[in-house]
Amino acid sequence: MMKKHTLLLIIFVVLAALIYYNIQAVSVFAGRYIYPLDDAYIHLSMARNFAEAGTWGITQYEFSSTTSSPLFTFLLAVLIKIFGNWEYIPLVANTFAGAALILVFNKYLKPFSVLTRFVFLAALVFLMPLHLMIMTGMEHVFHTLAMVLVFLAFRKYLEDKSPRHFSNLALFSIIATGFRYESLFFIFFICVYLFFMKKDYVISIFLGLFALMPVLVYGYISIDHGSFFLPNSLILKGNTNDGIAGFITRVAGNAYRGISVLILMLILIAQIFRNFRTLKHADTQTLKLPKNAVTLVVSAGFLVHLLFANFGWLIRYEAYLVVLILFAIAPFADDLFREKTGKPVLKFLMIGLLLITFYMRFITMLKYQPIASKNIFDQQIQLADFVHQYYPESGIIANDIGAITYYNNIQLLDTYGLGTIEVARLRKNDHGKFLDNMNLQAYIARTAENRNFDVALVFDEWVKMPDYFSKAGTLTINNNYICGGTTVSFYAVKKENADKLRNQLAAFSRQIPKDVTIKIAH
């Protein structure tokens, strides 16, 4: 029994060691673990507000469609309701999801050789990389697990079109879409395959409708509360068409940021050609298109993600793509590893591409993940601490809104638009760029005065503050990797409060990390 589970035990020990290493690396400078993205605190803030105040929003005072993963935020809210508000609930939940992902992937790999199982379980941990996705405190581990279950159910349905297998496929499709809307890219092509290749017309249509349910339900709720049909983040950050030139530029940027995934796609393309070559020489009785079903769906889904979604930001957006490609190429790899004769070129090429991806995704991120957490600690956590000391329940104007809302009960005007729908409406045609938006500047000036806001903590390069604001100082971090800007400016909304804000900054400067700089404006 021990031998049977030795490989799994090794994988779990390695994953645990990586998580421990990362916690220790961050605790050295922060005294506790800090998530490497402010977005994790957005999830926590919304989940806490929903669990404790019944408000689906970044603050407890109003609805906001701030989350890009409604199901993950809802899951955190349930856990907070049961266990209480604890900032490491996402970390624990992700760890369990990561363990489940390993077990599910191991079950999928069981028919393959020991070598294939070892290579692909290791690839799951190191190429995703799994520990990094766990440590982000974001939804990506749950989303990846749901997508793997979708493809397992898809394969089962192709083998046996039983109602049970379709029910599983539909259920996992609903869950996957709830975690991230990008799931629809792949489920759409599953539906296309079932419709045109298997002639399952009704089944295909119903599967698509089931998969759309989370989008339709959440969209209805959002519109009913005066928001967009889609989450604000998709409206503001999605790869929308800003003219042909702008669209091509964004796709090229995606390709550059996702080069590690494109390298893995070379293996998948080789597999598709080899499968079609095999099928070409088979007679019509033995020709079976399902051999290419998963690879074709993954390839098509990847292409649509490349065109319309995002890559990068701590390599998290494409993490699920890495796992789906590994899922698709595992049978091809097993065939190569089992071959006793023939040219070994493909074997070495595959291992070489996996190692290149390992270097680009794992080795590189060993360095940058602690830096990202350091950036968040130096900027977002310090801002949250400042607000907690001086303005814990005040009106705050800000553009990075996770930590400051999670650790406080402020009223918020979000100049980026994730947490303020009026700003999102004014910025939606900026296509994610920071332009000299006069309408937005006018809105900020009018709202800050009418709603009696106290201070603004913003990146000056994102949006110009009104002339009647008084700049009191700045907070600057070093070695910025993940934050939207290096320097945050502090403004007093009312001129008569400028000196008070300057004094607060001067006092706060004595307790910040030594490599963070606060300058007082005069």
Any chance you could write out the topology, listing elements then pairs?
Blueprint: H1 6-30, H2 38-53, H3 70-83, H4 89-109, H5 114-127, H6 130-135, H7 140-159, H8 163-179, H9 183-196, H10 201-224, H11 232-237, H12 243-257, H13 259-280, H14 293-308, H15 319-338, H16 345-390, E1 395-398, H17 402-406, E2 411-414, H18 421-427, H19 438-450, E3 455-458, E4 470-476, E5 487-492, H20 498-508, E6 517-520
Helix pairs in contact: 1-5, 1-16, 2-3, 4-5, 4-7, 5-15, 7-8, 7-15, 8-10, 9-10, 9-14, 13-15, 13-16, 14-15
Strand order of the largest sheet: 2-1-3-5-4-6
What percent of residues are in strands?
5-15%
State Rg. Answer: 25 Å
Mean pLDDT: 93
Low-confidence stretches: 283-288
First-last Cα distance: 72 Å
Count of alpha and pi helical runs: 20
Work out the oligomeric state of the chains in this entry: single chain
* Estimated structural class: mainly alpha
Please give the number of β-strands.
Answer: 6
Name the shape in a single word.
globular
State the order of secondary-structure elements, H for helix, E for strand: HHHHHHHHHHHHHHHHEHEHHEEEHE
Query: Helix proportion of residues, in percent?
Result: 55-70%
Specify the biggest β-sheet: 6 strands, mixed
